[in-house]
Structures are given as C-alpha cells and as structure tokens.
Design a protein that fits this description.
This protein has a five-stranded mixed β-sheet, with helices on both faces. α7 packs parallel to α8. The mean pLDDT is 88. The relative contact order is 0.08. A hairpin with a 6-residue loop joins β1 and β2. The longest helix has 15 residues. It is 39% helix and 14% strand. The chain has three domains: 31 residues, no CATH class; 47 residues, no CATH class; 109 residues, Ribonuclease H-like superfamily/Ribonuclease H (Nucleotidyltransferase, domain 5), CATH 3.30.420. With 244 residues, it is an alpha/beta fold.
C-alpha cells in the first residue's frame, strides 16, 4: 500500500493519492512528521499535602477509642468544634482507604457459620430413620398410612406396617416390635417433626431404651432424606398400585 501511495503521489499529488488509496491525510502527515517521544513527568507533590508523620497522626486519631466507631465526617466536625483542624474529610477517607479501613467502622456482630447436622452410621443397626406416608386405597378418597423404618447404613427396611390412620400408639408399638425383633438397640432414631414422631409415647419409649432422639430442623424439608427417597422410589415403580 505504501508503494502504491508513493507512485500515485508522485503523479497526482497528496490529496488525490489519499483519496484513491483511502488513506487519511492526517495519517499521512503524521507519519511524515512523527511526534517526539513524551518525557516522563516527575510526580508532583501538592504543597499543602500532609507529611507521612501527619498522616500517621490523623490515622491514630481516627482509630482512637473516642473516634473508632465514627465516620470521618463526624470526626472532622467534632475536632473542628474543639478548635482543631487536621485535614479535609476527603483526606481522612483517603488515609483510611490506604490502610483498607474505609468500610464499616462500627463494631458488627459476627455470627459463625452453622454446621449442618449429620448422622453417620459406620455399621448396621446404629441409626434408624422412619417416616409415615399416605398410600392410595382401592377407591378414590380412601388412603392408608404406611409406616416405614430404615437402617441408614444398608437402606434395609427393618420394620413397616400399613394402617388406616396415623396413630402415636401404633408408631410406638411398631418401634418397640422392630427393635425387639432386630435384637440390637440403635444408637439414634431420626424422624421429622410429625405429631406421631414427637409424641410423648414415642419419646418415652426411646428414653427408656437409651436411644438418642433426632428430629429434622424446623422448616427444613430435606432433613429426612433416606425415608423420603425410599417413598419416592416406591411410588414411582411401574407396579405401584394406582388409585381406581
């Protein structure tokens, strides 16, 4: 392109050569007379800028017991009322920003992260989980209640029954029969916060057997995952009976 421009320029002139080759005349002249390199400017210091000692004194003042929780504007106003002027409010903010202290200056309450409770079974018959779900009956409007107790180590169903209604008495009987048939008292029995799970009969049985009671956290729907997953697996099986 430069060779073509040079050939056209010699015959038609700069203006015509720029028009034919699509080059800006400003670009052409700038290349003929490049600008001299810029000299590095020395950093300029504001004559009224605070010295390092003065900045340290202002920082110490703002971090003192009297002003540690106040904003720079409040500190500036109180010092001015006392007849002392150190620097502007903007300078106070700049000093704090240099020390990564420009955030919230008031003491804030810190709440440690809550650990999610977890039940761990390293062997069979250590932790049982149980729940009650509704199962559709032979005709519309009739429902049964399936009580299922699972060993979370093996996912084995150690006890189950189907009743016409949910009952704390029947839940206590099922737990008692299951533990007796299993032959080993579990360390922990987990359930959600249903009325049967938190009933006095069930609680007293577990206390008498020395079993640790565990319940889902309030307003947490996934704290009983083994029972809920087992119910979904059962109800989504191809041979699960549907309501008439």
């Amino acid at each position: 392109m430069d060779e073509a421009f040079t050939g056209v320029e010699a015959q038609l002139g700069i203006t015509a050569a720029c028009r034919l080759t699509g080059r800006s005349r400003a670009t052409h002249y700038r290349r003929l007379r490049p600008a001299p390199p810029r000299r590095a400017r020395a950093p300029q210091v504001q004559p009224s800028a605070l010295t390092a000692e003065e900045r340290a004194a202002v920082l110490e003042l703002m971090n003192g017991d009297e002003y540690a929780e106040l904003a720079p504007a409040q500190i500036w106003a109180r010092e001015l009322d006392a007849g002392r002027y150190h620097c502007s409010v903007s300078t106070m903010y700049r000093i704090l920003r240099e020390q990564d202290q420009s955030g919230e200056r008031r003491r804030q309450a810190t709440h440690p992260a809550k650990a999610v409770p977890e039940l761990v079974a390293t062997g069979p018959s250590q932790v049982f989980t149980w729940d009650i779900t509704k199962a559709s009956g032979p005709v519309k409007g009739i429902w049964y209640h399936a009580y299922v107790i699972i060993d979370i180590f093996s996912r084995y169903i150690v006890g189950h029954t189907v009743e016409r209604a949910e009952s704390a008495v029947r839940a206590e009987e099922l737990l008692r029969e299951t533990i007796a048939r299993n032959g080993i008292v579990p360390q922990t029995v987990h359930a959600d916060r249903g009325t049967s799970m938190t009933s006095k009969k069930v609680s007293q049985l577990l206390i008498d057997l020395g079993v640790t009671r565990s319940h889902s956290r309030p307003k947490v729907s996934n704290d009983n995952p083994y029972s809920e997953a087992q119910f979904k697996t059962t109800k989504y099986m191809a041979d699960y009976p549907n309501a008439a």
